[in-house]
Amino acid sequence: MVVLMHDTMPESPDFTELFQIASGQLGYFTAAQARGKAITRMLLQHHIMQGRITRVYRGVYRFRDYPSTMREEVAAAWLAVGKDDAVVSHESALDLLEIIDIIPNAIDITVPRSKRYLSPPDGITLHTSTRPFEASDITYRNGIRVTSPTRSIVDIAEAGTSVEHVERAIAQALQAGMTSERRLRSVAASRSQRVQGVIEHAIELSRP
């Protein structure tokens, strides 16, 4: 009987590469990302017991020594819902984009309508959308997928956020060059007449 010998060794756990991944996500990483670096659940648990890693949500962890930053909890929430499908949206997106200075009561995350069965952790408001995200709908902040200024503003108008907040967001975004009247009208065109009216009125008020 011929026995074939392989000269490749099993992959070794690579915490250095995992830390690099986490550094692009404000210090957080997922269990799947850890597995991708040959780090087992048992090994993760060992490091949690040693105090090197903390468990934030189910399947979401943080390197203890990574420096704390403002709004880092948003990164953890986004990873907890599912980084490949989820997008930070609505007021949470506008907060990250520094368009409005309102801190949301919960972290807004939008997922495709097909993911509506998800049960998000406490502190997360889950929104669903039948509208596919175009490339122009998405931007990134600190490695986090975020809806663009235009999409975020139209989303809060549709969600029933106060008209005053929508008006202020549009005025600030236009002044900063983060959107334009044309883009706002284009995205709002697929929404209700009410939303289009709110957006149009806010645009008119933003003019000198």
Structure description:
This protein has 2 domains: 15-63, no CATH class; 72-206, no CATH class. It has helices spanning 15-23, 31-35, 41-49, 72-81, 90-96, 149-159, 163-175, 181-188, 193-206, and strands spanning 28-30, 53-57, 60-63, 87-88, 107-112, 124-129, 138-141, 144-147. The protein contains 9 helices and 8 strands. Strands 1-3-2 form a 3-stranded antiparallel β-sheet, sandwiched between helices. A 3-stranded mixed β-sheet has the order 4-5-6. Helix content is 41%, strand content 16%. The protein has 208 residues and is an alpha+beta fold.
Task: Enumerate how many helices there are, as a single number.
Answer: 9
* Main sheet makeup: 3 strands, antiparallel
Overall SS class? alpha+beta
What strand line-up does the widest sheet have? 1-3-2
Radius of gyration: 21 Å
Whole-number tally of structural domains? 2
What does the overall shape look like?
elongated
Fraction of residues in helices?
40-55%
The overall average pLDDT, rounded, is 91
**What's the β-strand tally?**
8
Q: Give the SSE string.
A: HEHHEEHEHEEEEHHHH
Cα distance, first to last residue? 87 Å
**Beta-strand share of residues:** 15-25%
Low-confidence stretches: 1-10
Write the layout of secondary structure elements.
Layout: H1 15-23, E1 28-30, H2 31-35, H3 41-49, E2 53-57, E3 60-63, H4 72-81, E4 87-88, H5 90-96, E5 107-112, E6 124-129, E7 138-141, E8 144-147, H6 149-159, H7 163-175, H8 181-188, H9 193-206
Parallel strand pairs: 5-6
Antiparallel strand pairs: 1-3, 2-3, 4-5, 7-8
